[in-house]
Amino acid sequence: MRRSFALPCVPGRVLGLLACLSLPMTVQADGCPTPGKWLQPGGERLDSTALFAELAERDVVLLGEQHDRMDHHRWQLHTLAGLHALRPDLVIGLEMLPREAQPALDAWVAGELDEAEFLSASNWRTAWGFDPALYLPILHFARLNKVPLKAINVTPELRGRLAGEGWDGVPESERFGISAPAEALPAYRERLSEVYAQHPSGDDDAGLERFVAAQLVWDRAMAAGLVEATAEGALAVGLIGQGHLQYEHGVPHQLDDLGVESHATLLPWAVVEECEPPPAGLAHAVFTLAETPAQAQPPMQLGVYIVPHEAGIEVRGIQRGSVAESAGLEEGDIILRAAGETLTRPADLTQRVQRQPPGTLLPLEVERNGERREILARFPPRDSGNGTR
Question: Which domains does the chain have, with CATH numbers?
């Protein structure tokens, strides 16, 4: 089977690459599964009643997603409802938020916050960045049924410290008791290498090692959070980017290492005109979805990999062929302002760029080698065929 990797669906975050991986379906139409069915990878049709009865006996169920796909979140919601009918002791683990957001999740489920207050208290737009409307139906389901929500991620800052300083360099109390991850399986490491090759510094061996280390932190943190959720016998259901789950490589592998082997991965699988059954080993089961109709044009993207900096936002990489490359941005630049707005966190720039109309200029104030300069980022018109992100 031919595989390809989607462009990052999280602007400015190289780590977002893995979370947004998608596998294309290419083969003869006569073997094409119909939408709305549960399949075992390899193509065998599954009975949904028997499948859910089996899943209800597990400790952990993992529901994959491509973060910006509403149909994936609708599928997750329906699956959660089915599991909740069999296991009322359900706990929903969210990749979307770091552990610092737990008080906001508890207050939301308790009915103490409205939507706007929750988004502010959880720091959703900075911590995650994807439109909360994609997730609000699931959040309301949890609130309506008093299903606990658990933040299972860590902040990018902590992830960077653990990947850079090593696990012994960060006190256990500052890493929420999360233990060091198991080594990446060889096939997972190969897959991560393919992902990292899309980065402008894709031939940097040291950079690849940092990327793999950061990815393992991410996987281990989420696995540890789900294990915590099962402590009192609850069924923990994790909502996680599909790239962390495919082929049992990421979070499932870390769950095994933590001694929780009773887990199952479920993934959505889009049916297109030319397709084939999902490959063996991809997941425990997949649910077939109709091909998504053409979506509205995505927001503009600058094409930079950025991290926080005390003076603004530091550019760590430039995508080839991007608006940033055309504008002359360079690695190491510190972006101080965009259109006169002071930038203090990566999300500030992401949100400003996403509001940028096609075919317009965005002035950036940049510090380079101690000197300040203005750089004009020119965003292409939609009809140019340039979908720069």
Answer: 16-290 (3.40.50.11550), 304-384 (2.30.42.10)
